[in-house]
Specification:
Radius of gyration: 21 Å
Helix content: 40-55%
Shape: globular
Number of strands: 10
Mean pLDDT: 90
Strand order of the largest sheet: 1-2-4-5-6-7-8-9
Bound molecules: ligand C2E, magnesium ion
Length: about 290
């Protein structure tokens, strides 16, 4: 009797594992055809100057929507793509589309996320440069977002790659800063333009002293090293105000704008700065 229920339990467990694997395979198969089926798009989220709310750039964020499953989060499919060579085709598609969109904005930069796997690929710099040349855009208008994982596994190679990119004029942002395994000692070796404070810290700011302390330390560190500091995931005016006081140079988050479709981003880009609800038109708040 005990044995039977034991086996039954095992069978149920197996079935749910099978289901998980089946879903995963289905997503992987779908993803490999997503480009051809025209199921991918990019959303753009404004990055604004702390006081003027001038839109200095937009972060490109990939979106995938299928007729069968609806929208699938990049937090799900990017890691799957990273487990195969798919990430390279996907990454190329993302970069090419982000660069093409740039031509419709008066002067802002586009901030593109790169997987550590793309970044560590041989000839990464040449590959990116080729896309940029083909698109006819200035590297100065392209910000490369990488995470700590991308640079701390092989710090020497990463330092070299970043240095080459920076010499070519690209901007470099260290994304999700504070969540990886970076050694602060190493940070100074990398040619960076800015740190992006992970939104988990911004989220905790109003509730926990620890998060607020970490946010202040990152801003302090960034400024001391001469880097810009972008706070991501800013959702409330009180967070924005606290970040201004702490000295963050740029803000990004739902308070200002969610990631929007390309057509919407073009309109925002033309306006050049954001106005928050409740503020007089054309009168951006000052820090
Ligand atoms: P990330 O690069 O750190 O992007 C920030 C994420 O926070 C985005 O989620 C964005 O929509 C979300 N976000 C922005 N403001 C707020 C806010 O105020 N509140 C909240 N709750 N969320 C906010 P998304 O688009 O789902 O992307 C998740 C992650 O997937 C990204 O984190 C990035 O790691 C990855 N990803 C997205 N697009 C790409 C891409 O084109 N290439 C690569 N390699 N990775 C990407
Ligand atoms: Mg990012
Ligand atoms: Mg981030
Ligand atoms: Mg992230």
């Amino acid at each position: 009797e005990a044995k039977r229920s034991g086996r039954g339990t095992v069978r149920v467990f197996d079935a749910s594992m099978d289901e998980g694997i089946r879903v995963r395979r289905e997503i992987e198969a779908g993803l490999s055809q997503a480009i051809a089926r025209d199921e991918l798009s990019l959303a753009y989220q404004p990055i604004v100057a702390r006081g003027s709310l001038d839109i200095v750039g937009f972060e490109a964020l990939v979106r995938w929507s299928t007729p069968e499953r609806g929208a699938i989060s990049p937090a799900i499919f990017i890691p799957l793509a990273e487990e195969s060579t798919l990430i390279h085709d996907l990454g190329d598609w993302i970069l090419d589309h982000a660069l093409a969109e740039l031509q419709h904005w008066p002067g802002q930069y586009v901030s593109v996320n790169f997987s550590p796997i793309q970044f560590r690929r041989s000839h990464f710099v040449g590959h990116v440069m080729e896309s940029v040349r083909r698109a006819g855009v200035e590297p100065q208008r392209v910000q490369i977002e990488i995470t700590e994982t991308a640079i701390f596994d092989d710090a020497e190679h990463a330092a070299q790659t970043l240095c080459e990119l920076r010499k070519l004029g690209f901007r470099i942002a260290l994304d999700d800063f504070g969540t990886g395994y970076s050694s602060l000692y190493n940070i100074r070796k990398f040619a960076l333009d800015c740190l992006k404070i992970d939104r988990s810290f911004i989220d905790g700011m109003g509730r926990e002293r620890e998060s607020a302390a970490i946010v202040h330390s990152i801003i302090h560190l960034g400024r001391a090293l001469g880097l810009g500091v972008i706070a991501e995931g800013v959702e409330t005016e009180s967070q924005a105000q606290a970040l201004r006081v702490a000295g963050a140079s740029h803000l990004q988050g739902y308070l200002f704008s969610k990631p929007v479709p390309a057509t919407e981003a073009r309109k925002l880009a033309e306006l050049k700065f954001l106005t928050l609800p409740g503020e007089a038109q054309g009168a951006p708040i000052m820090a």
